[in-house]
Structure formats: structure tokens, C-alpha cells
């Protein structure tokens, strides 16, 4: 097998799996390299073969006699052995997700994992990404962000997932279903507070829309709305000053509760263990509260 990055003869590709990013809406948002890979790969695999065929037709790429197979969440376990067989024969296989970059909220992860485990080459052909596009136009901090994919569909599990992410010191990015958007935004406002946020819909498409505002305002806007298309929700990071103030209030309350029925030493010990804080920090705050009293 040729090493990664090795030159290949015209009209052929080095054996291995190629993860090809495709447009998230506008068909022009595809790289020249991606078109070259789609034209030269010996086998094509796609989350939706119809969309990949249409993309190739738009850009004048003939499929010819090359095999093209579907690979998605439902048929992945059954389809993987076939694709792995082609890789074992030394063929080049290009995999495309429905839209955007493969492996980002996409079934291609298991295929890439299997290819690496078997010692095959794995090559990224980067391009469009709904996550990065939404982050770019959100107007929110982009130096640090966490992509959390789709939240659970049920309200209780969704709140629990949001609670786990509440303290993450980064901008949060989610995919969301149009029919669940109103309920999800309401719970985001409830759990995360009035953070700045953006709802990006149909990015790069004819009806692209980006609505920015505080989470409660966005929740009210979409409470009775019937949005269509692909949606990405971007939420700003927590306010550090507010977090510090909230933490101080929690510490003060826990100390007051413990000191009501225990000595200073025992109250400090109990509070430090309860909140997971250094005992020295808790003791210093206890002395401050004592002086204030």
C-alpha cells in the first residue's frame, strides 16, 4: 500500500478510504480536490446515494461502471464488511455523508474506525461544515467551542444533558430538529439562562436565515413557529463573573447550613466535601462570614 501523501499515477488514487466533505446546501461549495476524488475513486459509498449522484451530475462527473453503495445508520453493520472487502483488495473508496463533513454527527465514524483497525489508509478531504458555518455567522465567541450534536428528544433527558453542559466555558453548538426547536429553546433558556444565542437555518441555501438574540427571546419567537429545514443552534459561553457570584452564593449557603448545627472545623470539613472545594478556601470564606456577622 502506498504511504499517505505518496504521489499516484494520473487517473488513479492510492488505496484507502477517503472521507469527502460535500456541500451543506449550495452545490458550488465543494472543493476542487473533492471533485477530483469523486471522479477517480474506484468505489463510492454515500449516506444517500441519490444526493451523491445528483451532486456528481451537477458537476459533470460520470459514475460509469463504478459501484456506488449506501452506508448509513440502519445498514452500517451489514454494509461495512463489503466496503472493508474492497479496501482489502487495495481499492480506493470515497465516502460522502448526506451533507457537510463526514463523521460529524454522521455514521461514517464506525467505518473510519474499522478501516484504521485493519491498517488501511484514511484521508480527509475537507470542505463544508454546518457547525463551522453557523459558528462563523453567529456573532458569538469562536475561540473555544463545543459541538454537542443533537440533544435527546425527550424533555427530561434534554434538561439533564443541558445541565451537564451549563458550566462548560465555551460556546455551545447543537443540531436541532425543526419540530423540536421551540421546546428545546425553552429548556435552554430555563437551564442556561439569558445567554446570547443564534438560530441558523438553511445555511448556504436560498432561504438562509440567522436569528440572533437572548435565549428567552429566541424561545418566545419559536414557541409557536413552524420552521423548516436544517437548523443549528449556537449559544454563547457562560458569564464568568455571574458564575463566580453564583458559586460564592452556593458556598455561603452551604456554610451557613452546616454552621447552624456543627462547629467551625466540622462545618468547613462538611462543606468542602459537599462542594468539592479545597478546605483552605472554605475555611477562609467561613472566617470572612464570621467577621461580617
Give a quick rundown of the structure.
This protein has 293 residues and is α/β, with parallel strands linked by helices. The chain is built from eleven helices and ten strands.
Task: Please give the structural blueprint.
Elements: E1 16-20, H1 32-40, E2 43-46, H2 49-58, E3 68-70, H3 76-88, E4 92-96, H4 108-117, E5 122-125, H5 130-138, E6 145-150, H6 155-165, E7 171-176, H7 181-192, E8 196-201, E9 209-214, H8 215-221, E10 231-235, H9 240-259, H10 264-275, H11 279-292
Parallel strand pairs: 1-4, 1-5, 2-3, 2-4, 6-7
Antiparallel strand pairs: 7-10, 8-9, 8-10
Helix pairs in contact: 3-4, 6-7, 7-8, 9-10, 10-11
Number of domains: 3
> What gyration radius follows from the Cα positions, in whole Å?
25 Å
CATH architectural arrangement of the largest domain: 3-Layer(aba) Sandwich
The main pleated sheet reads as:
5 strands, parallel
User: In whole angstroms, how far apart are the ends?
Assistant: 76 Å
Give the strand line-up of the largest sheet: 3-2-4-1-5
Amino acid at each position: 500500500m502506498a504511504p499517505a501523501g505518496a504521489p499516484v499515477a494520473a487517473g488513479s488514487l492510492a488505496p484507502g478510504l477517503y472521507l469527502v466533505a460535500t456541500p451543506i446546501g449550495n452545490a458550488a461549495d465543494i472543493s476542487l480536490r473533492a471533485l477530483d476524488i469523486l471522479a477517480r475513486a474506484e468505489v463510492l459509498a454515500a449516506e444517500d446515494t441519490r444526493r451523491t449522484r445528483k451532486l456528481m451530475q451537477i458537476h459533470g462527473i460520470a459514475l460509469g461502471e463504478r459501484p456506488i453503495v449506501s452506508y448509513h445508520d440502519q445498514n452500517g453493520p451489514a454494509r461495512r464488511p463489503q466496503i472493508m472487502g474492497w479496501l482489502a483488495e487495495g481499492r480506493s473508496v470515497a465516502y460522502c455523508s448526506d451533507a457537510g463533513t463526514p463523521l460529524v454527527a454522521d455514521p461514517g465514524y464506525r467505518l473510519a474506525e474499522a478501516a484504521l483497525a485493519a491498517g488501511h489508509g484514511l484521508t480527509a478531504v475537507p470542505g463544508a461544515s454546518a457547525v463551522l458555518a453557523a459558528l462563523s455567522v453567529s456573532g458569538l465567541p469562536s475561540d473555544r467551542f463545543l459541538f454537542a450534536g443533537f440533544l435527546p428528544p425527550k424533555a427530561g433527558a434534554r434538561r439533564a444533558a443541558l445541565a451537564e453542559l451549563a458550566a462548560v466555558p465555551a460556546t455551545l453548538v447543537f443540531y436541532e430538529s425543526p419540530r423540536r426547536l421551540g421546546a428545546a429553546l425553552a429548556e435552554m433558556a430555563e437551564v442556561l439562562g439569558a445567554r446570547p444565542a443564534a438560530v441558523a437555518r438553511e445555511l448556504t441555501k436560498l432561504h438562509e436565515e440567522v436569528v440572533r438574540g437572548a435565549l428567552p427571546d429566541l424561545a418566545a419567537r419559536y414557541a409557536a413557529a413552524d420552521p423548516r429545514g436544517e437548523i443549528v443552534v449556537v449559544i454563547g459561553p457562560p458569564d464568568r463573573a455571574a458564575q463566580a457570584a453564583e458559586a460564592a452564593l452556593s458556598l455561603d449557603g452551604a456554610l451557613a447550613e452546616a454552621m447552624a448545627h456543627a462547629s467551625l472545623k466540622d462545618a468547613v470539613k462538611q462543606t468542602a466535601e459537599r462542594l468539592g472545594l479545597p478546605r483552605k478556601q472554605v475555611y477562609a470564606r467561613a472566617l470572612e462570614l464570621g467577621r461580617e456577622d
